[in-house]
Amino acid sequence: MNREEALNRLRPHLSEKRYNHTVRVLDTALELSTFYEVNRKETELAAIFHDYFKERDVSEMKSIIINSDLSNHLLNFHHELWHGPVAAYKLESELGIESSRIKEAIYYHTTGKANMSMLDKIIYLADYIEPGRQFDGIEDVRNEAFRSLDSACFMAVRNSIRHLLDLEQLIYPETLNMYNDLKRKLEESHSE
Ligand code: DGI
Ligand code: FE
Ligand code: FE
Question: What class of enzyme is it (predicted)?
């Protein structure tokens, strides 16, 4: 599926605002993929479809989770966390995309996880730093993004956890796993 076809498949499922966010994530992700030499085609499709299920009914996502091999554990956490896994699950049957690498990047784009691939990190980070985002401390993450993928992802997940703590929200375990994993890796690389 080429870029134009993919965007045409996505368009009916999103509001203009969310569609424009997706195009900015796509541009940002492609810049990162060029810089870090990550497969362009995979980056393109993962970015385009990362929020494919973002604006579906919560009840639709819930029934997909219950009637699929997706873990019901997700249902114990905020429904904001469901759209990635559900989109990843539907990728092959609805869109004919078979790549497990694309699937994984979409699955974990909201929560992150330990041992993320370069593609996973690029999608996670592009979603966080695309030019339309305004979070506290985001400029530091934008600057770091083209210096070290691990360090920039660490800053993003650290900020997100801080934000969730401020709101007294539940924190999904994979998000903490991502934080711990990158913290260890960055410490190891500094002590070399
Ligand atoms: O879909 P987007 O808005 O582009 O971005 P996203 O997929 O990163 O979703 C962000 C939302 O997910 C935001 O409202 C914060 C929420 N979120 C991310 N990680 C966690 C979380 N919410 C909870 N409760 N726990 C998490 O670990
Ligand atoms: Fe999302
Ligand atoms: Fe997004």
Answer: hydrolase
pLDDT digits (tens, 9 = 90+) for 61-80: 999 999 999 999 999 999 99
What's the gap in Å between 190 CA and the centre of ligand 3? 31
Of 27, 72, 36, nearest to 149 (Cα)?
Answer: 36
Specify the ligand 1 atom closest to the Cα of 174. Answer: 27
CATH superfamily membership of 3-135: Hypothetical protein af1432 (1.10.3210.10)
Residue spans of alpha helices (H) in 74-115: 83-95, 100-107
Ligand 1 pocket member 28 (CB < 6 A) = no
- Cα–ligand 2 centroid distance for 181 (angstroms): 22
Classify the C-alpha dihedral 166-151-80-76 as positive or negative.
negative
Q: What distance in angstroms lies between residue 70's CA and the mean position of ligand 3's atoms?
A: 20
Give the nearest ligand 1 atom to 51 CA. 1
Domain edges within the chain: 3-135
Residue-wise pLDDT for 9-62, tens only, equals: 999 999 999 999 999 999 999 999 999 999 999 999 999 999 999 999 999 999
